[in-house]
Amino acid sequence: MVQIYNNTDEINTKAADLFVESAQKAIAAKGKFTAVLTGGSSPAGIYKLLASDAYKNKIDWSKVYIFWGDERWVPLNDDLSNAKMSYSTLLSHVPIPQENIFEMYKDGVTPEDYAAEYEKSIRTILGEEGKFDLILLGMGDDGHTASLFPGEAVLEEQTKWVDAYYLAPQKMYRITLTAPLINKAEKIVVVAFGEKKVHALKEVTTGEYNPTLYPMQLIKPVSGELLFLVDKVAAGTN
């Protein structure tokens, strides 16, 4: 389902509202809320809004568990770190216990070994069902999401919940949730805006099925909801 907004402020407000709504619903039903954050520049406005006085007090942060959809294999203090951005805009400004935050990086281990360790953490919090309450995703200009990049072997993964691999074009390791795990979620919210997203958004939502070229097409919830929050420019209606 694609929802079109006038600008990024409206997108950020809708995404923040959905986050709060999902958190309140999950905490009321089962005593905890499990969420997956996305990186890049797109969600910064959402996170700042959630950290604002107007939003942060609507959530019992002691019952929130935070994971990430993917990460560049860099230290947490590196400017390329998704976690660093998330802390600076949101997590350092809300009363969430540190033990409820699961960063996708660890010193002294290989990316592959930590992918297996990260999957164990997910199973500990979510159980064998592996169903997150809410997953936030971005979409690259090339149609990738998380670290599911065009043409990479990770697109074929069916059993692992978390995988790590060397992304040659970027000359770095990436760690990512896999499509089968993402698709278990109760709600998946994809944020995309700007002129550079026009082509990918059109192909992903209305083009023929070719996930090797447009990996976002792999995101098809088993029983949950998939929602695209886009602006008029990305939707080509501006």
UniProtKB/TrEMBL annotation:
Species assigned in the record: Flavobacterium anhuiense
CDD domains per the UniProt record, alphabetical: 6PGL (cd01400)
NCBIfam families, per the entry: pgl (TIGR01198)
Residues annotated as domain Glucosamine/galactosamine-6-phosphate isomerase: 7-227
Entry keyword annotation includes tRNA processing: no
Family that this chain belongs to: Belongs to the glucosamine/galactosamine-6-phosphate isomerase family. 6-phosphogluconolactonase subfamily.
Catalytic activity reported: 6-phospho-D-glucono-1,5-lactone + H2O = 6-phospho-D-gluconate + H(+)
UniProt-listed Enzyme Commission number(s): 3.1.1.31
Top-level enzyme category: hydrolase
Protein name (database record): 6-phosphogluconolactonase
Entry keyword set: Hydrolase
Pathway listed: Carbohydrate degradation; pentose phosphate pathway; D-ribulose 5-phosphate from D-glucose 6-phosphate (oxidative stage): step 2/3
